[in-house]
Amino acid sequence: MITIIKKGPDTCFFSDGIQLARAVGKEGWLDSFEEKAPGVYRWIRRLPASEAGNKGTAKMRMELRASYLPDFTMVPGVNYDGNGWGTFCEYTSDRYHGVPWTYGWHRSSVAAMTYSEKTLAGRTVSVALFGEEEGGNSCQLYSDREEEVHSLVWPETEAPRTLFLYRFGPAWQGEEKEMDSFTAWIVLEEDAVPRSGYRKALDAAWEQNDRKRDCPYPPERIWELGIAYAKQLYTKEPDGFCGINIGLAWENGGWEKRKYNKYEIGWCGQNAMFANALLCEALRTGDKEAEAMGFSVLDSWLEMARVPAGVTGSYYDPGQVRYLEACDLGTAGLAYFEACDLTEKLSGRILCGEGKKAQQTDSADPARIRQKAARYYEAALEICDFAVRMQGEDGSFAKCWHADGRTAIKDGTVGAFLVMPLIEGYRRTGKESYKEAAVKGLRRYLKELKEYGYTTAGALDIFSIDKESGIPLLKGAMALYELTGEKEWLDGALDSAWYLSTWQYTHTCHFGPESVLGQTGYDSFGGTLVSTVHEGIDPFALCYIPELYQLFKATGQERWLKRARAVWRNGCQHISDGSLVIDGRLRPEGSQDESYTVTRQGKRGIASGWLVAWPGSFRMEALRRLKNEKDAASLWS
Fold it and tell me: Do 334 and 421 form a contact (C-beta atoms < 8 A)?
């Protein structure tokens, strides 16, 4: 139990006689602390009544000093234990040339939040401080002698340098506004999960800003728009390869498909999952064009993009040397298993899985359909076999390989994407080597998350701490829990979901009418930051909505349903119905921006204008995976 004791102008917080933190008072101002929940305090600093005629001040510092040098620190979505993993420009350490970093409130996924923890007397205690939505302030987190300093600072400041995209710029300070009242939130945890003691703070912040937000389209329309965009991006190359172009950009006075790095089987291109969505559309409506496109894409990757390592490649760009990525392979493995199932349904036949026999139907060409489905199944198993063959002694998988299977880049949690097809391969075949490799790999990566408090190298164009590398941990752990019912995997899924939650925006950034996002009414709540290097916000979390839903069902914890719902609302913004005009440019049906600039990494309040493929694929995957779940209906409404 936490007790509060005043010491002169300061206010100290104790747990079982141990001082956890000290709120530093300010002469001439009154501090009050209202406990909203156990360990959660609203800290208000006001001018006393005798100073009512005083307009206040534009400069304020609310400082909370944790009574330890920490084992782990975090500014969520910005700085994980000092960063430094990777090769790109980012905030590192807690200071720059001896001067503590000052971060604008919008940098962090929770407004101006700082977090630190320490193991004391056999238990982990933690301290968090954050501000209010649109607080107009900044935060600092740094060590000073034997204490860790958490502070909120007015006016908004970014110093001693401002992080732009891939570079630092000059310091920045916002407009000074006199105020007579300032608010901060303190969250203290007396027995926290190591490297994850921020859970209570994330919940507290979520409750402040979670409110009803409507989805712009019903799920049926979302599906139609996704199919429309998939068809627009579908391309048949002169050499016969058929694929889904990675996206549209504004060039030469119009929207044009990308002319380089055009096709990717997973990640940003999502060719295999888009192909499956087209097959689903054929099943749903009898759309023969969608069926032909889906089969052409799936077949092209197997016939024309296969690499010497014995699997389909990650990219198809003749003349360009590209790596074989674990992220793409994991996605492709799952997609080809699903493609086999969809082919069965389209042909009215049962073809896949051990112990199953084909049943004769009236198919026009049953032998061809049987061969096609079997080839998809074989392609998925090839990826499983590749994963078993390439797995390290410690259970890890490389980030990427050369086309012949030689390791190109070894490090990065992103290798965990290969766990997913292994689990599905075991479920379908009963092959123990698949399960053993999946269990060994996932245990290794979940242990890494527990030890370091972050995951790495999932954003394939950026080598840093990021969000995307945590996704296969959640997906893999939930899949193993569904398969085995073992608590180890449910615990691993919870650890992964909490980590991913540190990247999810819990507040709405407001933009002026002069900005694109101000004009469109874009709401940042529920979106996710990309990485410690790239602080744009995107809807990539769409791809793990099904796992958040499964976690809700497995635990009964409604927070996961709420977070999934917020992801969906956020990720359905800026989808064009064919009449959407942004920056004077009419956008094609089903298209959507890849990311949005809500921080000062560039000009705040702008949209990328890069109408990439993957958001539509992720939305359609979530819809088809959860279509038979009654409780999931609340996600889309």
Answer: yes
